[in-house]
Amino acid sequence: MDQAQPEIVFHTAALTDVDRCETEKDLACCINARGTKVLAEAARKMGAFLVYISTDYVFDGKQGLYKEEDAPNPINHYGHTKLLGEKYADCVARTCVIYGSKPASGKINFALWILENLHKGEEIRIVTDQYVSPTLTLTLPSCFWGRESGS
Ligand SMILES: NC(=O)c1ccc[n+]([C@@H]2O[C@H](COP(=O)([O-])OP(=O)(O)OC[C@H]3O[C@@H](n4cnc5c(N)ncnc54)[C@H](OP(=O)(O)O)[C@@H]3O)[C@@H](O)[C@H]2O)c1
Q1: Any ligand 1 atom below 6 A from CB of 14
Q2: Which of 55, 63, 123, 130 is deepest in the core (most CB within 10 A)?
């Protein structure tokens, strides 16, 4: 932060392994909540705007098709710690099942995992009772800048 002197910080780092967040609760809290607080303090010190990538896991899923004003109610520790992190950010984008072309890191997303397996003729096992609104990586910025601007 000191070297880059940013005007805007996109905070994407998190402990995202939902099962690990359950077994290592302190670590999840440390990274997702307190880590965000530290970053927010650093951003504030240099007048930078902090954008925080959060998650649909802040909701319990009972209602569905959530809007910004709906009350969060996380049902697991990952969702709980991500919600704690939200309060330190200037702007929060709650995304869900992010997908897109393969990044340089080689990390595979859910959509690519399905495609790759089906191309190989493999059988895949996935839940059939979960409804989500997947987010294409290219459209994720519209969460911040507004769909109309096209920028
Ligand atoms: N992918 C999704 O569908 C989705 C949906 C909703 C929200 N989100 C949110 O979007 C963000 C990115 O998700 P992702 O799927 O890209 O997650 P990811 O692949 O697990 O990436 C998380 C990144 O955070 C870094 N990180 C973890 N702990 C750190 C620490 N203590 N210090 C510095 N860096 C640390 C990791 O670094 P290492 O690789 O070095 O461990 C990794 O690069 C997260 O905030 C997540 O909650 C993702």
Answers
A1: yes
A2: 55
Q: Which residue numbers are catalytic? A: 78
In the chain, which ranges are continuous DSSP H helix? 18-23, 25-28, 35-45, 77-86, 110-119, 142-145
Task: Tell me the C-alpha distance between 88 and 134, whole Å.
Answer: 25
- pTM of the predicted model, to two decimals? 0.92
What ranges do the domains of the chain cover?
1-95, 99-146
The residue to mutate among 12, 105, 135, 140, having the most atoms of ligand 1 within 8 angstroms of its beta carbon, is 12
**CATH assignment of 1-95, given 3.30.1700.10, 3.30.70.1060, 3.40.50.720, 3.40.190.10?**
3.40.50.720
CB of 13 closer than 6 angstroms to any ligand 1 atom:
yes
Q: Which two tokens stand for residue 52?
A: 């925080």
pLDDT, one tens digit per residue, over 63-95 is 989 999 999 999 999 999 999 999 999 999 999
